[in-house]
Amino acid sequence: MKRNGETKRRRNVAEDAGQGGEDPAMWENLDRNFRQVQSVLDRNRSLIQQVNDNHQSRMADNMSKNVALIQELNGNITKVVSMYSDLNTNFSSAFHGGKNGHEGGSSGTRAN
């Protein structure tokens, strides 16, 4: 796992932004959004493990539980795609003259 490295990298990016005169609130927003994405990805990892365990058990009840787990996983993948799209839009807007990532066509995180 790279979590310690990721945390250190995020902290360094935020510190560099503050020293470089960039908007610290923008970096905090990006960091918060990346944490939300990571939370969904962590949940997906757990779902995949549950699906694998159920499949290996070869029990009918466990196999039927996989339907709901895979549906949740599919929905989460859609969420992650949307979240990354919003991050891209907000990040691009912030660096191309947008204010708080709201110019350029996106109004923030999409509701799912």
From TrEMBL:
GO cellular component: nucleus
Family: Belongs to the EARLY FLOWERING 4 family.
Keywords noted in UniProt: Biological rhythms, Nucleus
Compartments, record wording: Nucleus
Region (Disordered) location: 1-26, 92-112
Protein name: Protein EARLY FLOWERING 4 domain-containing protein
InterPro entries: EARLY_FLOWERING_4, EARLY_FLOWERING_4_dom
Residue ranges constituting the Protein EARLY FLOWERING domain according to the UniProt record: 22-102
Compositionally skewed regions (Gly residues) per UniProt: 103-112
GO BP annotations listed: entrainment of circadian clock; positive regulation of circadian rhythm; rhythmic process
Broad class of the protein's primary localization: nucleus
